[in-house]
Amino acid sequence: MTEPVCRVVIVGGGFAGLNAAKVLGNVQGVEVTLLDSRNYHLFQPLLYQVAMAGLNPSDIASPIRSMLARYRNVRVLLDEVVTIDLPRRQVVTRDDPLPYDYLILACGTQHAYFGRDEWEPHAPGLKTLEQATEIRRRVLTAFEEAEKCTDDPERRRQLLTFVVVGGGPTGVELAGAIAEMSRFTLAHDFRSIDPRMSQVILVEGGARILGAFAEPLADNASRSLARLGVQVWTSCLVTSVDANGIEACEKSVPAATVIWAAGVEASPLGRGLGVPLDPQGRVHVERTLNIRGYPEVFVVGDQAHCLDEEGNPYPGLAPVALQQGRSAARNILRDLAGRPRREFSYLDKGMMAAIGRSKAVGQFRKMRFTGFIAWLAWLLVHIYYLTGFANRLMVVLQWGWSYLTFKRGARLITQPDWRLYKRGRSGDGR
Amino acid sequence: MTEPVCRVVIVGGGFAGLNAAKVLGNVQGVEVTLLDSRNYHLFQPLLYQVAMAGLNPSDIASPIRSMLARYRNVRVLLDEVVTIDLPRRQVVTRDDPLPYDYLILACGTQHAYFGRDEWEPHAPGLKTLEQATEIRRRVLTAFEEAEKCTDDPERRRQLLTFVVVGGGPTGVELAGAIAEMSRFTLAHDFRSIDPRMSQVILVEGGARILGAFAEPLADNASRSLARLGVQVWTSCLVTSVDANGIEACEKSVPAATVIWAAGVEASPLGRGLGVPLDPQGRVHVERTLNIRGYPEVFVVGDQAHCLDEEGNPYPGLAPVALQQGRSAARNILRDLAGRPRREFSYLDKGMMAAIGRSKAVGQFRKMRFTGFIAWLAWLLVHIYYLTGFANRLMVVLQWGWSYLTFKRGARLITQPDWRLYKRGRSGDGR
Description:
- Chains A, B: Its EC number is 1.6.5.9.
- Chains A, B: It catalyses: a quinone + NADH + H(+) = a quinol + NAD(+).
- The structure is a homodimer.
- In chain A, strand 23 and strand 24 form a beta hairpin.
- Chain A is elongated.
- The C terminus of chain A is likely disordered.
- By secondary structure, chain A is of the alpha/beta class.
- The interface between A and B is large, with 95 and 99 residues.
């Protein structure tokens, strides 16, 4: 006779949710349902490479369904969660509600505009593939427009000015990649403009970029950025963003392209729970990763506010999410085996940020790396963690190729969606 | 002293326009401007592979600008042509009008719905990358929906029914690829559905599919399709298309996904010219490829209606477009050298259609190929003609990989554009 089946519902197919599913996926008597509104797992650390036309969307994303195909107890559903009914232990979706014995929430974060949502259309964030391809479209289109704009130097200067708001790893990597692209990749393709005329400005509100990194590394990164021609403005708050550009530290900067890499907030799903949240909307969880008073509900990854041994919240890093997903799943297994739960403790995997195509900064516990060595380490780590061998192979080759040739594999400006149903006009000047 | 510069404007960066530009691009005293509304050249023969998640958009498209970077006399502009002013010899664009001494129109074709444009949203064509990724989204989403649809067998059957309208090479290749994908690629990824339950119907109005091919080849293709589980309905006219499916030969077929591969018409730009057009809107040109009465205006590729030695119009094939582009450009050079123009004569490169991932049919002059040999030939030819070494390399590897593993590299459902500005929610169930 078999014991009654334990129903585990996981919301979110990011690093945390995916790895929770893998721990539970082949366990007898456990039935896992993973919900996501996308059909793919996204390797976010390389998203900026898609935005900068260095990689294809599918190089950094793969279908959750096939990633979990080997795990026979896992059912993957493409669905939108409306709300969570904690008392009834149900996940309410667009379709039928899903009852659960255990729930693992791993919904990640989204960009926050500090209450200035009207800035969003003018300064897209970089959290989804759509945003990445949109940023790619804007950057490449700006160069195309500048090429045509032969009679208006001011407008051309505006078109060739790129502002990145936020000096965290994403902002640093974006700024470096734009500078690189304009200097090398595009340098020979244009006739009437010199892409080196382009201006890249990285705006950071804090006293220095890469606040989470050790100060010497941040300084090194600033120097590397400067060498690529990136202006780094620190202690500089953005006071306005519109179609013409930004205003920051009393200066008004005309810029056709503004990218938002500052500030995140947790998924709005948390607000519906009626449990304590931190200012960023992350759900407070105990060190066993479940919500106080709800032992059957775990919150993991960027969506969770979990304190470490020293009482500091864990940062929103991929390895943290990955380890928390596993840890929550293992606590469920401990319950089923009648063993006590374990508190989460993070095995530090370090932090890295790439700058252009040959430099990086990284820290791993007490160790610090800079320059080409750090970039090599960055490359190896990211390729290693990229899910799926095919992806890894493609990325290695694509990078090898663009490293040698300065070409960008994916430099396509795809049209906005309203043209989807317009008839085909490829190779057509109209 | 230098002779006065001759201004050549080329509209369209497809096979015809691109190759015309290459012939003229390094000639002393010629100044070429190539206009396209896209920044990339699209390798249309493989577009169906993108729609079927076998390839990435950037594998079959590369930026016109970098493809022509070596040709110093060529200026590439991303712009929309409003109209052509033949008397004034100007191309009127969204920006400044472009005067020309010679004009080469190579605007290609678009899908035609035989006056039933209301069908288009329910049955997208396959001419652009956006349409390809939209078709990909629809096909993959249908399977996801079917997976959730456990209680309504009729609805599920509708979700798993795929109709391809039009039995030309594109229709045949699409139908074969859908059948293949549902049988092999997706077979093991779903829990509650068996993708083999899916139904693929190829509807052709004519007496047989592949009308342009020799009859034995068409028969062979039909058999290969049948073996993949594709139903081929010939002499069957579609009388209605809506959100629920289609009506054809008195049958109403509930189908969630309908793809339009029937009938094309030339770019609307031709209508503005006030010169004779054929019923498909193609511009009648003399055998020297210029419009009668306008020796300085050439029309080439799918947009041109040009008669061969026997008085039959040339078919809309990539090699025809490529050769006509070169031929028109060479006639311009002959003018400049004071030599007589030459009439276009087509060097037959044959025709091919792939069926699934291991069969094809092809004919080359008197020779005919079928089965695996034809597929190998198809593979080699298409990889050879793919522009840019990097692309070729990627495609070979991606295909090699999916051939070995049945996996699809690019199986992503990217969201419609209205979500672009929605904040990032990757790895998020909401």
